[in-house]
Amino acid sequence: MLRVGMLTSGGDCQALNAAMRGVAKGLSANVEDLEIYGFLNGYKGLIYGNYKLLSSSDFSGILTKGGTIIGSSRQPFKLMRVPDENGLDKVEAMKQNYYKLNLDCLVILGGNGTQKTANMLREEGLNIIHLPKTIDNDIYGTDVTFGFQSAINIATDAIDYIHTTAASHNRVFIVEVMGHKVGWLTLYAGLAGGADIILLPEIPYDINKVVHAIEKRSKAGKGFTILAVAEGAISKKDAQLSKKEYKKKLAKSPYPSVSYEIAKKISDKLGSEVRVTVPGHTQRGGSPTAYDRVLCTRLGAEGAKAILEKDYGYMIAMVNNEVRRVPLENVAGRLKMIEPDAQIVRDAKLIGISFGD
Questions:
Q1: Distance CA 153, CA 149 (A)
Q2: Which one from 12, 33, 104, 136 is the annotated catalytic residue?
Q3: Cα 261–263–268 angle (5° rounding)?
Q4: pTM of the predicted structure, to 2 decimals
C-alpha cells in the first residue's frame, strides 16, 4: 500500500488541479494499492488534521479547472514555529498527522513561503516532494512555475483592452499587475501587451524619467501611453529607505496602491488625467492555459516517478525545457529576481520601452 498526502498552500492559481492530477495519474497508473489524502486548506489541514481520502473520480475532469479542489490558505513561514492561540506546536502537529496516516510521502504545491515550510518538514524527517506554483515565477531553481503563463495571458488581455480606450481618449493609462517583490509577470505582460513603460520592483524608477518618456511619445504624435506597473514597483527615492521605513511610509500613504501615487505624480506634472486599472485577482482565476496544462502534467508525472523511486526531498523543476529534480535545501528561501541588465530587459529597451531608470 502506497499512501501519499497532498496539500496546496498560499495564493491559488489556475493550474493547481492540473498538477495534482498529474501526480495522481502517474501514481495510479503504476500502483494498484494507492491512497491519496488531501489536506484541506493548505497547511491548516495538516496542522489540525483536516483531510479527506481522494478517489480517482476526484481527479477526473479537473485538468481545465482553475483553483484547487482541496482549498488553500496562507500560513506564513515565520509563524510556523510559533504556537497557535491554544498553545499548539504546529510543526509537531504536522508531523503527528503525517505519521498518523502512515504516509509514505507528502506532495506540497506552492510558492516561496510554502517551499520554506516544505523544506523545514524535510529537515524534520518527512518525505517531501514540492511542485513550484506561483503566478510570480519567482521560485529559484526552475525556469518557470505553473500558473505564470496563465496569469500572463490575463494580464496581457487587460492591457490589450486598455489599448482601445486609451487610443480613443488620448489618455495615459496605468495597468497594475500583480507582483510585490519581483516583476516577471509585469515584464512579460507588458511586453506581450505592448506597454510603453514598464515599472518593476527590481528596477527603481525616477518619476521625471517616466514623465519624459510620456512627453517623448506625445511629441512623436502618439496620443496615448500605457504603463504596466508591478504592485511592488518602487521609486529610486523610496528604494533608499530601509524596509521598516518604507513599510511605515506605505502604511501612512493616502493611495490604495503605488499605481495611484504614480498616476497622481504624472497628472501633477503633465496637467492631464491619468487612469488606473487593476485586474487584481482575476490574474489568478479561470482555466489554465494549454501551456500550463502540459507543464503541470510533466511536473506531476515526474513527481510521481520520484515517489515510486522513493527519491524524496526535491522540488520538481523545469530546467532548459527538461524536468529535473532539484534538492529542496538548495533552493528554499531564495527568490529568482529580474536582473536590471538581463537580456530581456535590454531587448525591451532596444525597442523603446522605458523602465523609468
A1: 6
A2: 136
A3: 95
A4: 0.94
Residues 206 and 197: their CA atoms lie apart, in Å, by 12
Q: Which helix (H) or strand (E) holds 92?
A: helix 90-100
The per-residue pLDDT for 167 is 79
For cell 485577482, the residue is 281
What's the CA gap between 2 and 311, in Å, rounded? 14
Contacts of residue 123, Cβ cutoff 8 Å, sequence gap at least 6: 329
Going by C-alpha positions, the residue among 148, 130, 132, 152 that lies closest to residue 140 is 132
Confidence at 187, pLDDT banded by 50, 70, 90: very high
d(CA 223, CA 238): 30
CA 292 to chain centre: 13
Amino acid (1-letter code) at residue 24: A
**Three-state DSSP state, 250:** helix
Residues with Cβ within 8 Å of 120's Cβ and at least 6 positions away in sequence, in order, are 77, 80, 91
The answer to whether 130 and 303 are in contact (CB under 8 A) is no
Sign, CA dihedral 125-127-129-130, equals negative
Tell me which amino acid residue 75 is: Q
CB distance 153 to 338 below 8 Å? no
Burial code (b: 16+ CB inside 10 Å, e: under 16) for 35-49 equals: bbbbbbbbbbbbbbe
136 is catalytic: yes
Query: Rounded distance, CA 124 to CA 219, Å?
Result: 62
**Cβ–Cβ under 8 Å, residues 304 and 26:** yes
β-bridge partners, 317:
324
Which residue type occupies 205?
Answer: Y
- Count how many Cα atoms sit within 13 Å of the Cα of residue 152 in the half-sphere of its side chain: 23
**Number of other CB atoms surrounding residue 191 within 10 Å:** 19
Q: In which element (H, E) is residue 343 found?
A: helix 343-350
Tens digits of residue pLDDT in 73-117: 988 999 999 999 999 999 999 999 999 999 999 999 999 999 999
